[in-house]
Amino acid sequence: MVGPKGYVVFAKEDGVRAWAVAANLAGQEVLRGNVERRHGGTWCVGVDALPNAPDGSVNGVPLTGAWQTHVEPPASWHRAQLSVVFPGYPGKDADESDAAHRYRRLRDAAHVDGLLPEGPARRRHLREPHGFVLGLPLNAVRASPLVVWEGSHLIMRSAFRQAFQGVAPETYGDVDVTDAYQAARREVFATCARRPIHAEPGQSILLHRHLLHGVAPWDGPDDGEGRMIAYFRPLVPPGRWLPPAMH
């Protein structure tokens, strides 16, 4: 699907750019409303915030692109995340621990989507198994780019297979994968290349669902404009999120 590196950055396409223009206009309207910002107001999380239609279109502009030949699209698209990073990212929230803030600054808050922290100890469980992650840049701001660790999906997948060994897929969410997840991240940091991805409207970014990725701290001018990307993460059954070892 995405090759040995675990991700593909596609060249600019007119259809993708037309969608990005429409989504940017819709996103700007969303930002004018009462949207949640975290990390000292420097990040709009924007989960399910983009008002795209179930076919992925925005105001009649279809969702399209070369990425379509690499994945199985869902029968119905969820509303995309509208992730907007502003100058100064990452600020520190009052309820954020020093360790969490340090990890965000020094390790780009690197994570695998769908493993949610739960309880006071923030133990990780698979609650949102995604088929893939599709990122569509909505403006040309280069600060705070998406960051990936090349080939990290292979290390993470191996760790998940060990953690879920002998467990029925329908009960994957009951397994605490925190220790295995953190150990695999440490291996990734020690062995995989960290790559910032600078992409513009008209391009699309496809990530393997197990790829470790994050957001770099803001390193551009404080001009008030945020870096905006729309993300689609269609859900799949747990058994497809982690297929058999010989698949």
Give a quick precis of the structure.
The protein has 247 residues and is of the alpha+beta class.
Tell me about this structure:
The chain is an alpha+beta fold and 247 residues long. The chain has 5 helices and 12 strands. The chain has helices spanning 14-31, 98-107, 152-163, 178-191, 238-241; strands spanning 7-10, 37-38, 43-44, 81-85, 115-118, 123-126, 133-137, 146-149, 194-197, 204-207, 213-215, 227-232. A 7-stranded antiparallel β-sheet has the order 1-10-7-12-4-3-2, covered by helices on one side. The protein has a 3-stranded antiparallel β-sheet with strand order 9-8-11, with no helix packed on it. A hairpin with a 4-residue loop joins strand 5 and strand 6 (123-126). Helix 3 packs antiparallel against helix 4. The longest helix is centred in the first third of the chain and has 18 residues, at 14-31. The two termini are 13 Å apart. 38% of the residues are buried. The mean pLDDT is 96.
